[in-house]
Design goal:
The complex is a heterodimer of chains A (about 200) and B (about 290). Chain A contains twelve helices and no strands. Chain A is an all-alpha fold and about 200 residues long. Chain A folds into two domains: about 5-115, Fumarate Reductase Iron-sulfur Protein, Chain B, domain 2 (Orthogonal Bundle); about 120-200, no CATH class. Chain B has about 290 residues and is α/β, with parallel strands linked by helices. Chain B folds into two domains: about 1-115, Glutathione S-transferase Yfyf (Class Pi), Chain A, domain 2; about 135-280, Rossmann fold. Chain B contains 15 helices and eight strands. Chain B has helices at about 15-30, 45-50, 50-65, 80-100, 115-120, 120-130, 150-155, 165-170, 190-195, 195-210, 225-230, 235-240, 250-260, 265-270, 275-280; strands at about 1-5, 30-35, 75, 110-115, 140-145, 175, 215-220, 250. The chains are: A mainly alpha (about 200), B alpha/beta (about 290). At the A-B interface, α6, α7, α8, α9 and α11 of A face α2, α3, α9 and α10 of B. Bound molecules: iron/sulfur cluster (2 copies). One iron/sulfur cluster binds near residues 43, 44, 45, 96 and 101 of chain A.
Chain lengths: ~200, ~290
Amino acid sequence: MADSHTLDKKHPASMLPETITPDVRFLQQVEAAGPFQASACYQCRKCTNGCPVSFAMDLYPDEVIRLVIVGLPQTVLHSQTIWVCAACETCTTRCPNDVKIAELMDCLKETAVQKGIPCPHPQILDLHNIFLKDLKRWGRVCETTFIPEYLLRSGMLRRMWQAHTLGAEIKLGWRMGRKGRFALLPKTIKGKKEVRNILGRPEKR
Amino acid sequence: MKVAYYPGCSLEGTAKDYAESIQGICASLGIELEEIPDWNCCGATAAHSIHHRAGVELAGRTLNLASQMPHSDLLVPCPMCFNRLKTASWALNRDSANRYGIVLQDSLPSVWDLATFLATDAMLQTTAENMRTPLEGLQVVSYYGCMANRPPEITEADNFENPQALDRIIQNLGATAIPWAYKTDCCGASQVLSRPDIVSHLVGKLYDMAERVGAQAIVVSCQMCQANLDMHQEKIGAEWGKRFSFPVYYFTELIGLAHNVSGVKRWLSRHITDPISLLEQLNLRGNP
Ligand code: SF4
Ligand code: SF4
């Protein structure tokens, strides 16, 4: 990786060092996993203007595309943006140049995981991992096993405790249980092996 | 009419109300649902976020199981599952040999978002013929969320910025669907577990606008939207310095109510924000 700076949470662009060496092959590598048509972007910012989560992002969606094109992988792969993106597909739907922005966000997350780049909000990656673990276990996802495991292992329970919201959340969970909203037994499927094989094979991407 | 059916994981758990209401109304509409044997989870957000290939293959396995059934239509009530199945068939029809370890069989049934299916002319007519109690006086906004419509290249939705399926169903039942601009704005979906602050922000905006256009309730076709809108109203209201108390109905519950299907009260009793008082004010008493 050519660019080696880390991201300032408030003003990532202002933290770019004055001389940077771009990784000119990054766009090519990303597009090989697509195609996402990133190079067709003409920076109209329509994606960013319609993005419902832009308020929680450190890089705007159009900036992610731009940094992929100019080859600054470390900046995008360390960003919060790729993780807080809600995958709502508004950007992809509206882009006048058919850039698959939301799909590219997924590709960047997957690339960050494969390179061992830590997720700036670990509880978001934990959610994905623990969901897939539950799916591997049963072939379907059982909220009754998946949600408690997630809350415990991601530290979300501790956060709720610290934010004094744990009591309210437990009460809500209790009400849900009383209303019969949690399955008592997980449903498991015959094709569990096939599912495990799909999830277990190593990636080429 | 017999159709293939893919309920998805959450309809076996927290979205029991949605599942029960679908079973209830399909009987009244003459639709026989046959579940895809041994279906698996579509992988949802987790798989497409960090494991693209698995996301496509997981949905592909279920599609292939559906292909072995004799039915020409596959109904999918969960918009996330619907989106993943459509994405998989799109991807596998283009690029299966190189990228994915699964080949799609021929004879794939048409994959339908349930609300879109029930809003076809034929189904609207059947729905109208079975009317017992028109939902007069009920003024709602329809809320579609993201996955049933976007991206249109995958979902094949024609009116993706201003979808009409739920509005047509609501009007057909005698209720009023108030036009509003937030039909397809995102609720944050599974981020409710990892970034509840983001969900509060997004859902708060929806309540605020629903209130401003004069809606009494919000009607949805997605169990993630339903949960995010129904479960945390008190908390989100407090954060917005307001008190919100919108019943959040599944469109299927409203069809059941208008058709006097038995079980409506049981389905509604599973909600968190009181869905009954408003109906009683309007003299709409569902069957137990
Ligand atoms: S909408 Fe498309 S063309 Fe416009 S800035 Fe975003 S990616 Fe680029
Ligand atoms: S998919 Fe992600 S980046 Fe695109 S508009 Fe939605 S939240 Fe924003």
